[in-house]
Amino acid sequence: MERVRATKPDDCYIGAPELAVEVVSPSETAEMLSGKINLLLAGGSLAVWAIYSRSREVRVFLPDGTSFKRGVNDVLTAPELLPGWELPVAKLFESDP
Q1: Residue 76: strand, helix, or coil
Q2: Which residue, 50, 45, 2, 1, is CA-closest to 22?
Q3: Tell me, what's the pLDDT at 54?
Q4: Residue 57: φ, ψ to 5°
Q5: Which of 33, 71, 81, 88 has its CA 20 to 30 A from that of 54?
Q6: What are phi and psi of 77, to 5 degrees?
Q7: Torsion sign across C-alpha atoms 87, 80, 4, 15
Q8: How many other CB atoms sit within 10 Å of the CB of residue 20?
Q9: What does the DSSP 8-state code read for residue 7?
Q10: Which portions of the chain are predicted below pLDDT 70?
């Protein structure tokens, strides 16, 4: 958030978002996705979430090279970016009534 606050009010923010969320398309190759994730992390993102609709899971990628999976029975958090915020992964895959 500090990077955005440091941007002048009449300027555009240039750079990767601190949290990037990518909904993985069925036509997207692993190589394409990996390239996007690497670009975002190299650009300064603190986390990248890749949402896989078919398998109903989220993969979380961090700048230190670690990654982990969260399934529909898990909860997404981002304490370093959004303290106290939680989202049950199942909510991502709910259909509108």
Answers
A1: strand
A2: 50
A3: 92
A4: -145, 165
A5: 81
A6: -140, 160
A7: negative
A8: 19
A9: S
A10: 1-8, 11, 13, 96-97
User: Given the DSSP bridges, would you call strands 57-61 and 47-52 parallel, antiparallel or unpaired?
Assistant: antiparallel
Predicted local confidence at residue 7, as pLDDT: 63
Note the pTM of the prediction, 2 decimals: 0.84
CB-CB contact of 44 with 16 (8 Å):
yes
Whole-number Cα distances in Å, 34 to 25, 30, 89? 13, 6, 22
Tokens of 57: 């899971």
Q: What is the pLDDT of residue 2?
A: 63
Query: Under a CB-based contact definition with an 8 Å cutoff, are residues 72 and 57 in contact?
Result: yes
- 16 is written with which tokens? 């990767």
Distance CA 70, CA 56 (A): 9
Q: Of 53, 62, 55, nearest to 20 (Cα)? A: 62
